Amino acid sequence: MEILAFGVQADEKPLIEKAFEGRHEVRCLDVFLTEDTAPIATGYEVISTSVNANLNARVLQSLAVGGTQMIAQRSTGFNNIDLDVAERLGLTVARVSYYSPYSVAEFAWTLAMAVNRRIVRASNRTRDFDFRLDGLLGRDLRGRTVGVLGTGKIGEAFTRIAHGFGMNLLGWDVAQNPACVELGMKYVDKDELFASADVISLHVPLLPSTHHIIGREELAAMKDDAILVNSSRGGLVDTDALVGELRKGRFAGVGLDVYEAEAGLFFLDKSLEAVEDDTLARLVTFPNVVVTSHQAYYTRDAVAQIVEATVENVAAYAEGRHTENVLVPAAK
């Protein structure tokens, strides 16, 4: 069986080809799955997609008409897939339920430290041989308070790093993580977390209940010198509201690895084009903001685990097995 993989990065391609070697043929494309590119999948029983693929009703319908029966998404999140339509069309859908949580947790702290210690500004200055310290004043993290929204595997890994810094730990989640409690985390409601935390990091999935969990009211409740980090999903933050607060001169720093309108932008080279997204264009102009391109997961360790899980998902489909990674089982 030959598998068609959409949205494959250059670094991913050899890992995917090696993982499928001796099992199935795989054709890797750097284009992302959209309504325009869906017809490319005609004749492929199994396709693999990236996190920024758009699997709405029209795309799924196009895939089904073209003969696709199984979609193996190379990510944990699946908010980009209309699962109800997939089930109605008889499409099997699987995801990667687990990969290294340290990749994302470590990167979230990388963003926090970068904005706290003004690393990007300092690096840009020294390239011009400007070695002044004006405007580079940061803060010690030890003794300060971190607020973690979402204390699952990634949130726990993030919390362990915060504990190593000697920070006070506040958490919010639908259920407490005993490992975080053992580290000294105090679970509080969101209002207390926003009002008390010096650093706030988001590690919850994007669901209807968490969409814009950081909105105008939440941003207004935060400390003026707080640091906000989002390495989970862009839709967790109301970006327009965030820009409004930044225009007021608020927040010591904001680190964003995700953006709610990133589809069609992230993972692509837009350097020679006029970016039409006015909100993103304004966001990247603030000196206390660092925006990266959804790369928190992008370590050799994590990508290797994602690829291996994807191979296993395809094998399970071919053998008629049901695993914890299956979101929509095969039609009976």
From TrEMBL:
Q: Which SUPFAM superfamilies match?
A: Formate/glycerate dehydrogenase catalytic domain-like (SSF52283), NAD(P)-binding Rossmann-fold domains (SSF51735)
Tell me where in this chain the D-isomer specific 2-hydroxyacid dehydrogenase catalytic domain is found.
8-327
Q: Which UniProt keywords apply?
A: NAD, Oxidoreductase
InterPro entries, alphabetized:
D-isomer_2_OHA_DH_cat_dom, D-isomer_DH_CS, D-isomer_DH_CS1, D-isomer_DH_NAD-bd, D-LDH-like, NAD(P)-bd_dom_sf
Look up the domain of life of the source: Bacteria
Q: D-isomer specific 2-hydroxyacid dehydrogenase NAD-binding domain: which residues?
A: 110-296
Give yes or no: UniProt keyword NAD: yes
Protein family according to the UniProt entry: Belongs to the D-isomer specific 2-hydroxyacid dehydrogenase family.
Q: How is this protein named in the record?
A: Lactate dehydrogenase
Q: Lineage from the top down?
A: Bacteria, Bacillati, Actinomycetota, Actinomycetes, Kitasatosporales
